[in-house]
Design goal:
Organism: Effusibacillus lacus
CATH superfamily: Aldolase class I
CATH architecture: Alpha-Beta Barrel
Strand order of the largest sheet: 9-8-7-6-5-4-3-10
Protein name: 3-deoxy-7-phosphoheptulonate synthase
CATH topology: TIM Barrel
GO biological process, one term: aromatic amino acid family biosynthetic process
Structural class: alpha/beta
Number of domains: 1
Largest sheet: 8 strands, parallel
Number of strands: 10
Keywords: Transferase
Bound molecules: phosphoenolpyruvate, manganese (II) ion
Number of helices: 9
Strand content: 15-25%
GO molecular function, one term: aldehyde-lyase activity
CATH class: Alpha Beta
Radius of gyration: 17 Å
Shape: globular
Oligomer: single chain
């Protein structure tokens, strides 16, 4: 069902009026984690002012260490909904387990499935049964074939609204957190009709490389970007090193607009 042979036209996922796929470049941005009302509202206002369409922010966080900040849970979801109310932005947030599916689906516009859960097949099957867009991140060591088969689990349940997100894969290279596999964009576009976006923040792990890789992501044909930004990256409770400041995000958005107009 994910294949272009089955469905030659690009799928356009309609997120309550924001269309993802078919050549539009949609920008999702916000902090890695929802930390507080002040932090989220400041981020949301900056995201809207810069002209992006979707606010990101994790309320349930998959952390490498169990002792790290795990997210605010439902409190974080409520803050995201409040930010949507205030700014008109749509929201995307991660769902980590079956237990919280109804809760997360109740608050969010797009359900993010993180890299670590890309092959959580029971979770994917449940997502197939609901009617809510799903953004499926590529697994840390997943091949493109495995990623498309993971999407197939959601599609085969009847949920057609799947967005793929390339977020870097694990390689031998240590200069960056992951290796952003931009090859995946044209490969996915040839094999599949599903929208594919690029996450240069997790893809590099370094804020200084995010602007170049964002522009590269657009140049290579992605349907959008997911970018981490934070009012004070040095104080971020997660992923500060890869988060842009608000001014950095604003200047990147200007470059992105110029680039998308040129294309
Ligand atoms: C995130 O988007 O903050 C995140 C945890 O992403 P990934 O699943 O790609 O690591
Ligand atoms: Mn993050």
């Amino acid at each position: 069902l994910a294949s272009r042979d089955f469905h030659p036209e690009p799928t356009i996922v309609d997120v309550d009026g924001v269309q993802i796929g078919g050549g539009n470049v949609v920008i999702m941005a916000g902090p890695c984690s929802v930390e507080s009302r002040e932090q989220l509202m400041e981020s949301a206002c900056a995201v809207r002012e810069a002209g992006a369409q979707i606010l990101r922010g994790g309320a349930f966080k998959p952390r490498t260490s169990p002792y790290a900040f795990n997210g605010l849970g439902e409190e974080g979801l409520k803050l995201l909904a409040e930010a949507r109310e205030k700014t008109g932005l749509k929201i995307v947030t991660e769902l980590m387990d079956l237990e919280n599916l109804e809760l997360v689906a109740h608050y969010t516009d797009i359900i993010q499935i993180g890299a670590r859960n890309m092959q959580n097949f029971p979770l994917l099957r449940e997502l197939g049964k609901i009617r809510k867009p799903v953004m499926l991140k590529r697994g840390l060591s997943a091949t493109i074939e495995e990623w498309l088969m993971a999407a197939e689990y959601v599609l085969s349940g009847g949920n057609k609204d799947v967005i793929l997100c390339e977020r870097g894969i694990r390689t031998f290279e240590t200069a960056t957190r992951n290796t952003l596999d931009l090859n995946a964009v044209p490969v996915v576009r040839r094999l599949s009709h599903l929208p594919v976006i690029v996450d240069p923040s997790h893809g590099t792990g370094v804020a200084a490389y995010v602007p170049s890789m964002s522009k590269a992501g657009i140049a290579v044909g992605s349907d959008g970007l997911m970018i981490e930004m934070h009012p004070n990256p040095a104080k971020a409770l997660s992923d500060g090193a890869q988060s842009l400041t608000i001014p950095q995000f604003h200047s990147l958005m200007k470059e992105i607009k110029a680039l998308t107009q040129a294309l």
